[in-house]
Amino acid sequence: MTEVLITGTGLFTPEHAIDNEALVASFNAWVDAENVRHAAAIEAGEREPLQHSSSEFIVKASGIHSRYVLDAAGILDPERMRPRLPSRSNDEPSVQCEMGLIAARQALETAGVAPGDIDMVIVACSNLERAYPAVAVELQAQLGTQGHAFDMNVACSSATFAIDLAACAIRGGNIRRALVVNPEICSAHLNFRDRDSHFIFGDACTAVVLEDAELATASVRFEILGTRLATRFSNAIRNNAGFLNRVTDSDPLASDKLFVQEGRRVFKEVCPMVAALINDHLESLGLGGGELSRLWLHQANHHMNDLIARRVLGHDPKPGQAPIILDRYANTSSAGSIIAFHLHHADLASGEVGVVCSFGAGYSAGCVVVRRQ
Length: 373
Ligand code: CO8
What we know:
binds octanoyl-coenzyme A, Peroxisomal Thiolase, Chain A, domain 1, nine-stranded mixed beta sheet, about 375 residues, two-stranded antiparallel ribbon, globular, alpha+beta
């Protein structure tokens, strides 16, 4: 069977960072102004006062200290509380294409692959800035890749689902090289006025080059031993923004058109689902958790990753065995596990095995088992 390798990865990190203190200060300023505005109703018992957020809670509950965003000023302005991205003409590159170009060029350079040698581009992420033409086709034109390109969305699992698809296309002989790109602008779909979730997300873009092993020239390469995907329907993470909003006459600015979740339920339901997926997948490959050198897990919550790592490894992860990047990046949706891989793979020795695993809305979970060559 054709061997498929990951030969390059890339990462675009936005210039602006917001730490918890700055985010909480802006949120609390908005809360105070709202409570003053509704003082009479609060006094009359007709309305509950809004509560402050706190950095201590955010760190304790999630492990997040900071996040990168495309625009900090708009988010931190208590009068606005959403990023301000200038609109672009149809003749300018789209924002996600621009982020994708930076990550993709880095991944191609690492792999030692020219854009013209890529047969397929998949832009896979939680939110796409338009319905069509596909961002992937725009990226294909900007990069100068061959073949075909398309967009896909499996929320936080978009990257691993796209890696599975690309690996299958290479194994099947339809293509020989693929580029997977994950431009996540989570800040545009986050409700910065929701105390339960205003701290959760950040922006980033990752890229991965996959090749038929016969063509690969990169010095650092990981063989894909297998991929496995799982989905189970749940409303616990939901976003009702969509093209029907216009015709159903629903309020396009209502909070259900942004990210909404029941965080505790997600935690309880997703952790066992993910641990079972990884363990079953490893078993089918004749491997056990004890043989894993690294777990590059989805980056939503530190406690979630600790719990999943324990269930897979059979013990607490050793330092560096399940790298955490959410402390600096927060949850970057599908980019998270790939950022962890990008920043923490080079030290693995030949023959060492690891798992890239993402999970999130849907529910969805994707597992990619790799071995350093
Ligand atoms: N500051 C202070 N206190 C707070 C705050 C705050 N900001 N928020 C809540 N509290 C309080 C609550 O009021 C509650 O108080 P009380 O006990 O008095 O009722 C207490 O803290 C505990 O609240 P929770 O039970 O909600 O807190 P948790 O410990 O469960 O932590 C988390 C909340 C961090 C959200 C946690 O539940 C979690 O991380 N869960 C998993 C979430 C997850 O993995 N989600 C996956 C999402 S990713 C995805 O698939 C989305 C893809 C789409 C991306 C789109 C981009 C926008």
